[in-house]
Automatic annotation (TrEMBL):
It holds the Pfam family HTH_1. Keywords: DNA-binding, Transcription, Transcription regulation. GO terms for molecular function: DNA binding; DNA-binding transcription factor activity. This is LysR family transcriptional regulator. Belongs to the LysR transcriptional regulatory family. Signal peptide: none annotated. It comes from Trinickia dinghuensis.
Length: 296
C-alpha cells in the first residue's frame, strides 16, 4: 500500500527545505520548532529514510529529500490548482500592496505564490518602503493595502495579522559587542515602531548605548551588523540564520513585540483587495503551537 502523505507534513517539509532551517519553517507554518522536528521525523518514518543532513549550523537535503521535495511541491500545487479550478470566484484587476522590506521578503512570498495560483487574473504591484513612507501613500490612495506594524501615531491600523517578537542579533564572531558599554546599536530610521520599541527598552533598563548606524531599510541595518560594527534588534521573522540571536543574556533588555496588521485605503473596497487581504489573514495569522525561543 502506498503511503498517505499528509498535506500538513508536506507543507512543513517544503518550508524547512526551502528555508534551510527548522526555526524559520516553524515561523512559516505556525508551530514550535519542536513540533516541526516531530513532523519531519514522522515524514521520515513514513518514507523510511532520512530527508535531511543535519549539523550544528546547516540543514541540507539528502538525495531522498531532494526527490521528495519535487513531488511535495507538485502535490501542493495541484491542491491549489484543484481549488482554483472548481471553487474560486472569478476576479480580475490590480492591487497595490506596500510593506517594509523585512516583512515583504520573509512573510509574503508563500502568500503571493498561492494567491497567484488561485487568482491568476489579478495583477499585484509590491512597493517596499518603511511605515513612515507608506502612511501618506495609504492616506492618498496611492496604495491599496499596507502590510505594516501597527502605529496609531501614523494612523496605521487595520486587521490584526500576527505578533512578532523583537530579538537582539549580532555577528557570531563579535561577542565583544554584546558586552560593550555604551552598547553600539544599529537602528531603523526615526519614526518607526521597531526603533521606538528598541530605544524604549534600552532606556527602561538604564543601559547606556550609542546609535552607531541608522537606516530606513533592513539591508542597511544588516550591513552594520554583518560588518561587526553594531548589534541590532529585529523582528523574529526577518532574522537571517547567519546572525547570532541572544535571548535574555548579557544584560540586554526584553523588547516590546510588534503587532503586524493589514491596513486599507479608502478606495480598497473591491474584491481584488478583499481576497488578497483574506489570503494574508488565512496564511499568516494562525496561532503558534507553543512558544518558539531562538538562541544560537
Amino acid at each position: 500500500m502506498s503511503p498517505d502523505f499528509d498535506a500538513d507534513l508536506l507543507k512543513t517539509f517544503i518550508a524547512a527545505a526551502e528555508l534551510g532551517s527548522f526555526t524559520k519553517a516553524a515561523q512559516v507554518v505556525f508551530r514550535s520548532q519542536a513540533a516541526v522536528s516531530m513532523q519531519i521525523k514522522r515524514l521520515e518514518s513514513i518514507v523510511g529514510k532520512p530527508l535531511f543532513v543535519r549539523d550544528t549550523r546547516n540543514l541540507s537535503l539528502t538525495h531522498t529529500g531532494e526527490a521528495l521535495l519535487e513531488y511535495a511541491r507538485r502535490i501542493r500545487s495541484l491542491q491549489d490548482e484543484a481549488w482554483a479550478a472548481v471553487a474560486r470566484p472569478e476576479i480580475s484587476g490590480h492591487v497595490v500592496l506596500g510593506g517594509p522590506d523585512d516583512y515583504i521578503s520573509s512573510l509574503l512570498p508563500p502568500v503571493l505564490r498561492r494567491f497567484s495560483v488561485m487568482y491568476p487574473a489579478v495583477e499585484i504591484t509590491v512597493i517596499c518602503a518603511q511605515s513612515t513612507a507608506l502612511a501618506p501613500m495609504l492616506a492618498d490612495n496611492r496604495i491599496d493595502l499596507a502590510f505594516v506594524t501597527r502605529d496609531r501615531s501614523l494612523r496605521l491600523d487595520g486587521d490584526f495579522i500576527r505578533r512578532e517578537p523583537m530579538l537582539w542579533v549580532g555577528k557570531p564572531d563579535e561577542p565583544r559587542l554584546w558586552l560593550a558599554r555604551p552598547l553600539p546599536v544599529a537602528l531603523y530610521e526615526p519614526g518607526c515602531m521597531a526603533r521606538a520599541n528598541t530605544v524604549a527598552a534600552l532606556d527602561r533598563a538604564g543601559l547606556p548605548y550609542r546609535a552607531t548606524y541608522s537606516s530606513a531599510s533592513m539591508l542597511g541595518v544588516l550591513t552594520a551588523v554583518d560588518a561587526g560594527l553594531a548589534v541590532s534588534a529585529l523582528a523574529r521573522c526577518s532574522i537571517p540564520d547567519r546572525l547570532s540571536v541572544i535571548a535574555g543574556r548579557h544584560g540586554l533588555p526584553e523588547i516590546e513585540p510588534l503587532d503586524i496588521v493589514v491596513a486599507r485605503s479608502a478606495k480598497s473596497n473591491r474584491p481584488t483587495c478583499d481576497y488578497l487581504a483574506a489570503q494574508m489573514q488565512e496564511d499568516l495569522s494562525r496561532p503558534m503551537e507553543g512558544v518558539l525561543t531562538v538562541q544560537r
